[in-house]
Amino acid sequence: MADSTIVPAEACTRLIVFAILLGLLILWERWAATRVIHISRARRWSTNFGIGLFDTLLLRFIFPAGAVGAALFATKQHTGFFHHVPVTGYQAIVASLLLLDLTIYLQHRLLHAVPWLWRIHRVHHADPEIDVSTALRFHPLESVLSMLLKTAVVICFGMPAIGVLLFEMILNSAAMFNHTNASLPYHLEPWARWIVVTPDMHRIHHSTNPADANRNFGFSVSWWDRLLGSYRRPLGTAFPKSIGLPDGKATPEHVRLIWLLLMPFRG
């Protein structure tokens, strides 16, 4: 695919996948909600979807071709690890998916561990409820830093564009899935959790209890939490006693878009 066509094609593909999955997950929440949402959807969703849209437009302005464009650049320049070792295209795609997912897991741990990064990431955890819209609620600075990190990893390894595009779609889909206010069937969930991050597993991470908020950092697969010692088994479909910030009380401003954009810079 030519460089001149990668931006609209990549954006269109991701938008279609996003819209279809979002619609399905919203229906799942409506039919099988695990927890009653006390704040109106209109109030929270206008903020969460609003900040998600702002992030998307900002990233398209700063990185027109995104991480996929970085992969095309690496291929054109024949730079990166995969271009200098004997690997097949299929092997490079699989390795790219695993390496990028591990990168996002490690990034997530750093966001909690480094104070100035936590100030930015708090915007995500400040949501007093948790549903599919929470997956879009990230401060623009976090989105930009994440894209810079992904771009650097893509170029260093010379990852194939198709692998990077697949990862971006998987990551977005997984984030919406594991933030959904619903649960997999009781007998299926423990088995699924050996492979993917389920809603029951991830919602522990949104607890106001710091011991729980610093567990289950994965977005797509559960392997990294299990292998690197951050896994905590969920207790059935039960939600944490309280959802929100582990280092502060919930306030009405936590569902206001302008306040969230200013949040990292406030005391």
Could you explain how this protein is built, in words?
- By secondary structure, this protein is mainly alpha-helical.
- 60% of the residues lie in helices and 0% in strands.
- It has twelve helices and no strands.
- It is globular and about 55 Å long.
- The model has no long low-confidence stretch (mean pLDDT 93).
Strand content: under 5%
- What is the count of DSSP helices, taking H or I runs of 4+ residues? 12
Spans with pLDDT under 50 lasting ≥5 residues?
none
Structural class: mainly alpha
Helix-strand topology string = HHHHHHHHHHHH
Estimate percent helicity. 55-70%
Largest sheet: none
Distance between the termini: 48 Å
Can you count the beta strands? 0
Categorize the overall geometry.
globular
Mean pLDDT value: 93
**What is the C-alpha radius of gyration, as a whole number of Å?**
18 Å
Give a quick rundown of the structure:
The protein is mainly alpha-helical and 267 residues long. The protein has helices at residues 3-32, 41-62, 66-77, 89-113, 115-125, 140-157, 161-178, 189-192, 199-202, 210-213, 223-227, 257-262. The mean pLDDT is 93.
Task: Label this structure with key terms.
267 residues, 0% strand
Topology readout:
Layout: H1 3-32, H2 41-62, H3 66-77, H4 89-113, H5 115-125, H6 140-157, H7 161-178, H8 189-192, H9 199-202, H10 210-213, H11 223-227, H12 257-262
Helix pairs in contact: 1-3, 1-7, 2-6, 3-6, 3-7, 4-5, 4-6, 4-7
